[in-house]
């Protein structure tokens, strides 16, 4: 090993590294080469040698048996102290690092002790001179503030229970509600009451379109109001005023009732913004004009359909985040000058990609 002492770690070849490691330890190599163990570890890794933590001199079976007999029954010396729990007065052992801070034998005792001490006026968040008794405006009984409930919520409350609130309370509905945002907002976000009505209608009709008899396993089913929703508000939630229709028949019925029902939400997208290869399909989805992009995933070549607005301005299109991340790992580290080496698509699969 003396012949390597005159060299620096960077001057040793891979063959020379394999001769000295793992025959010698990193500490021995660092002492002879005049460098640190971290430097030795770095150059061993660069040489492609696997780092090992095995003993250089393997122990015999007889030696192992003697060690196990010698270590059996041994108990490690305890350097800590024994303290008395402040809650249950139980004696418990504390390690040296927690001698100054440990006061309880368990989290349960700590919680019980804090619960006893920090109640009422002793609690750090206690607010003095505040009303903690009120008269229920519904039943007229007196009710108290209970600690788990925030004091601010208790001061704002008017009733002692939810039952009294439902029986004697006033509910704001429709335009009188402070959060009412108009009829158009209600049409976009249906309430739970309308959802329950629609579910009852679908259950009654056996999940089949009553116009074309198509099943719900094939088409999307919707509940249609026989008498219009806006004109007859009194029977909106009446199950007899509903009929199950598929999405196609539903919008055909509305087209017959009102020719101006269909709303066009097209946004101008120039051809120069469409950089990916594929077909643009114009169709109607739920009564609205919609444009879709139909093409292949740029990594796995799977056929996909996306909204045209999601593809406009992009140079690639993927079926999911998995393919997008694989494509980015393969071609995301090229410099601008090397962009010409990246193929336009990677539809051959990750194992068959070749850079020209």
Structure description:
The chain has five domains: 2-46, no CATH class; 82-119, no CATH class; 133-168, no CATH class; 193-257, no CATH class; 271-352, no CATH class. The chain is 29% helix and 13% strand. The protein contains twelve helices and nine strands. It has a three-stranded antiparallel sheet with strand order 7-8-9. Helix 2 packs across helix 3 (37-46). Mean pLDDT is 78; it is low at 259-267 and 346-356.
A few lines on this structure:
This protein has 356 residues and is of the alpha+beta class. It has helices at residues 14-20, 26-33, 37-46, 61-71, 107-117, 151-156, 162-168, 183-188, 192-204, 247-257, 308-311, 321-331, and strands at 81-84, 91-94, 133-135, 142-144, 221-225, 242-246, 279-285, 288-296, 303-307.
Order of helices and strands: HHHHEEHEEHHHHEEHEEEHH
The helix-and-strand class reads alpha+beta
Stretches where pLDDT falls below 50 for ≥5 residues?
A: 259-267, 346-356
Question: How many angstroms does the end-to-end distance come to?
Answer: 48 Å
Please give a handful of descriptors for the protein shown.
356 residues; alpha+beta; two-stranded antiparallel sheet
Fold topology:
Elements: H1 14-20, H2 26-33, H3 37-46, H4 61-71, E1 81-84, E2 91-94, H5 107-117, E3 133-135, E4 142-144, H6 151-156, H7 162-168, H8 183-188, H9 192-204, E5 221-225, E6 242-246, H10 247-257, E7 279-285, E8 288-296, E9 303-307, H11 308-311, H12 321-331
Antiparallel strand pairs: 1-2, 3-4, 5-6, 7-8, 8-9
